Amino acid sequence: MLVYVQQGAILEKNWANYISKDWNKDTVWAICSQFSGLKLRPKSEQTRWKISFSLDAQASLDVIDDLQDLLKFCGLSAQVIFSNGRDVDIVPNNCNKGKATAYLQQLLKVEPQTTIICGGSGNDISLFQLSSPGIIVSNAQTELLQWHFKTHYPWHYLTHYPNAAGILEGLVYFNILPFPNSWRSQPISN
After folding, report:
1. pTM score, two decimals?
2. How far from 48 is each of 16, 19, 20, CA to CA, in Å?
3. Cα separations (Å) of 175 from 82, 88, 98, 172, 189?
4. Measured in whole angstroms, how far is the alpha carbon of residue 68 from the centre of its chain?
5. Which one in 10, 18, 69, 183 has a CA-CA gap of 20 to 30 Å to 162?
6. Owning domain of residue 54
7. Do 8 and 80 have their domain in common?
8. CA triple 50-53-56, angle to 5 deg
9. Do 80 and 131 lie in a common domain?
10. Residue 1 has what pLDDT?
11. Does residue 69 belong to any structural domain of this protein?
12. Cα(147)–Cα(128) distance, rounded to whole angstroms?
């Protein structure tokens, strides 16, 4: 995840320096290329701070742990993010949605408790590791649901509804939006 400021025009330099620390994309790529179960995604999915693969349908999920272990053994500052049952992204240790959100909270002087995070995929797990209230939609991917049921932080809400309806449900739960029955009492204007 990249952090852009000034209407998306400029990459915040401090953030770029932070996520680049100890990142060696070429060496990470050389290690990843040894795993036959990983299929490189199109060039449009690659960035300076992300190497993106799809997990071959025939490959074992052990590839994810094996790759993370090998990167760590080699002393590389990289993390493997598995999401949607197939997507494998390798990014710097300092780069994920949770760290980017915490960075923005600090940059904008926003308290974590005043930020509602939402998600439904394995690449959102780092968001939910923050102390911010969180909304996990009911149709979340298996890897996020497994993480949620294992950790079960009380400041997270697992919705009954999927997608945007689930986010609306969560906003009602956290009292950001009024309870829907109160909407009926509002006058209807033409």
Report:
1. 0.77
2. 10, 10, 9
3. 32, 35, 23, 5, 25
4. 17
5. 183
6. 4-92
7. yes
8. 165
9. no
10. 42
11. yes
12. 10
Going from the C-alpha of 142 to that of each of 1, 58, 81, 87, 125, the distances in angstroms are 22, 18, 14, 13, 11
Whether residue 100 lies inside any domain: the answer is no
Q: Which ranges of 74-155 does DSSP label H, i.e. alpha helix?
A: 97-107, 125-128, 142-151
Per cent of the chain over pLDDT 70 is 88
159-166, long-range: CB < 8 A, 24+ apart: 159/135, 161/137, 162/137, 162/138, 163/120, 163/137, 163/139, 166/120, 166/135, 166/137, 166/138, 166/139
Structure tokens at 49: 């701070």
Residues 121 and 80 in one domain: no
Give the Cα separation of 23 and 17 in Å (integer): 10
Q: How far apart are the first and last CA of the chain?
A: 43
The number of residues in the chain equals 190
Unique residue bearing structure tokens 């986010």: 167
The residue whose two tokens read 């330099």 is: 13
The pLDDT assigned to 17 comes to 87
